């Protein structure tokens, strides 16, 4: 039986970029607004945070912003993020502190998903071994090395496993070497699948379109992961939640939490 009590979607920033970043070989020249989401999962055994958003300092400080985003061979669009959107701000509004988070599950280590590790550095950090290896080797430009170079309590994983009864880590490589999604059994209603960047948009799921960036150009691996999530959703009657879809976020944000 699931031990999940509530799930809170957290908007950590907004990003505007060319649509082809999310849909491989589709949408070039069209800018889209994309939410950068994290999720707090409260269970009877503790609290799990899936992803942590960006490092706010690299956005707020002009010198750091230039260094990490604009003064690059291939400049990156700068996310729009406020101090209140940092993970500690979200936790504070729920009456919590970063120390109240027991486990941080990082779907992958790109800057918009792992930059906020500096705000929750006292928690156990779960990550796939292949992901950590690829990130440290700078497999692509989405990794900011100092985002994950601190003295973190890594819990390196390889197999799919339960973080708590009703919360299961799912291997979904393709966008990155060791990407992981989460399957969550809610106390009421359908289970949900947090796709992470295995599926940025509903379009990735419906049309089986790989993300624009694929590890080592392994589009086949990314598509296999999308199909794996769709099969899991069919088998468990789950809903797949895309990670950067503004229309989906607008629907999601009408609620405050999913709970018993």
Automatic annotation (TrEMBL):
Stored Gene3D superfamilies: Ribonuclease Z/Hydroxyacylglutathione hydrolase-like
Source domain of life: Bacteria
Name of the protein in question: N-acyl homoserine lactonase
Known cofactor(s): Zn(2+)
Domain (Metallo-beta-lactamase): residue spans on this chain: 35-244
Native source organism of the sequence: Paraburkholderia fynbosensis
Annotated Pfam families: Lactamase_B
Keyword terms, alphabetized: Hydrolase, Metal-binding, Zinc
PANTHER family cross-referenced by the UniProt entry: 102 KBASES UNSTABLE REGION: FROM 1 TO 119443, QUORUM-QUENCHING LACTONASE YTNP-RELATED-RELATED
Name of the top EC class for this enzyme: hydrolase
